[in-house]
Amino acid sequence: MKGNAIIGQFGGPTAVINSSLCGLIQEGLKSKKVEKVLGMRFGIQGFMQDEIFDLGKEDFQVIEGLRQTPSSALGSCRYTLKDEDFPLIIKQIKRYNIRYFFLIGGNGSMDTIRRVEKYCQKNNYKLNGIGIPKTVDNDLCGTDHAPGFASAARYVCLSVQQAGRLARDMQRVDKYVILQTVGRNTGWLAASAALVKKTESDAPHLIYIPERPLSKERFISEVKECINKNRWVSIVCGEGILWEDGTPVASLQTQNNLSNIEFGAMGGGSAALTLHKIINQETKYRGEFQITESLSMCAIDRASKIDLEEAYACGVKAIQLAEEGLSGVMVSLHRISSSPYQVELKTVSLNEVALHTRPMDDKYINNQGNFVTNEYIKYIQPLVGELPRYSELNFIKSK
Predict the structure, then answer these.
(1) Of 111, 137, 139, 307, which one is the catalytic site residue?
(2) What is the domain partition of the chain in residue ranges?
(3) For 338-358, b where at least 16 C-beta lie within 10 A, e where not — what string?
(4) Is the pTM of this model over 0.85?
(5) Where substrate is bound, by residue (predicted)?
């Protein structure tokens, strides 16, 4: 089947989403079945507003440069299709002779592809819809991990490692530091900080994730124990952590237009700020909290090499799958081994991914619910790559 291909980016960006875009464009331009490679500006909303562009007319250097370009080059959106949108969508699809429909995104994006494909099928129009995974949250079902996660994890690791040094060296002033990560209702990203801990005294000391609700009593007890042992404490928390009664630690919460909980600035509160206040009230110690918000989603300077390569490969694979006639699937990463690290690109049905969320596996969380197991370290290490090692003074007493 010959026709045009269209590509869109959906939801929050990652450091490597444009690497997937590059793979799609370059492989699409080589394909004998793809006549033109088109791009939708600002996702499916832009598509409906006729923001459609010919990516084949871009300079080669511009397209190649996408592999090292942060954020979402096409522009993105967060939008749930309404029933009344579909007549316009199929009109646009027919107008531009689109036969291959690609979205780079998360579980909401996969639902969009699924619904568009089904509508076209119902109206006797042949359209191949394929998803390319993307999320820093790493909560996609059917794949070992999602492109974008490894780079965000590396960002978190470096932030915790360096902020931990600062907190340790400023312990006479501040006794604690709390770093909050994104990740919504899963703890994959917050948990990645554990990779930087090489000795018992290293940051982080405590990691709190949404999969393991906590009590205020247990929290303050663990904090005091760490301060008594190390004279300071480094804490990492996911933005969506909960108290044992199910209420969010962030205190306040609102919903966006996709009915997803808004955390951080738009949520009106933050888990890190709440924990900071509790420690200060209970101990009277000074300390600080750090909320990076979306910085981990676009920090190309901290991108994981493996992440960049896998994101590109997923884009290439999506075109190849379309050429083979596959539809209704998402490219997935299947891990063959962790040491040496090896993955294989496979597919998973959109039905298994769309609107589903994958929490952290129980085997990756320690019994106390405040750190990870060695299994998780083995899982995350090859994705993040080598981290810096810093000098330590021996503090030899002068005579």
Answers:
(1) 137
(2) 3-138+301-353, 149-296+359-384
(3) beeeebebebbebeebbeeeb
(4) yes
(5) 135-137, 182-184, 239
Decide: 188 and 139 in contact? Cβ < 8 Å.
yes
Give how far the C-alpha of residue 44 lies from the chain's centroid of Cα atoms, to the nearest Å: 20
Is 192 in contact with 382 (CB distance < 8 Å)?
no
What are the pLDDT digits (tens) for 152-197? 999 999 999 999 999 999 999 999 999 999 999 999 999 999 999 9
56 within 8 A of 36, measured Cβ to Cβ:
yes
For residue 251, what pLDDT is reported? 77
* Two domains, one topology: 3-138+301-353 and 149-296+359-384: yes
Residue 196 assigned as binding residue:
no
- Establish whether 137 is a catalytic residue: yes
The per-residue pLDDT for range 356-390, each reduced to its tens digit, is: 999 999 999 999 999 999 999 999 999 999 999 99
**What are the backbone dihedrals phi and psi of residue 203, each rounded to the nearest 5 degrees, phi first?**
-75, 150
- Per the annotation, does 239 bind a ligand? yes
254-296 per-position pLDDT tens digit: 555 555 555 655 655 799 999 999 999 999 999 999 998 899 9
* CATH class held by domain 3-138+301-353: alpha beta
pLDDT, one tens digit per residue, over 324-354 is: 999 999 999 999 999 999 999 999 999 999 9
**Of 111, 112, 103, 95, whose CA–CA distance to 20 is shortest?**
103
Distance (Å, rounded) from C-alpha 315 to C-alpha 132? 7
- Tokens of residue 342, six digits: 């090896």
* CATH architecture for segment(s) 149-296+359-384: 3-Layer(aba) Sandwich (3.40)
Outline where the chain has alpha helix (H): 17-30, 43-48, 60-65, 86-95, 107-122, 149-169, 188-191, 216-230, 271-283, 305-323, 350-353, 374-384
**Residue closest to 66 by CA, chosen among 244, 285, 306, 308:** 308
Distances (CA, A) of 354 to 107, 141, 146, 206, 341: 5, 9, 14, 33, 28
12 assigned to a ligand binding site: yes
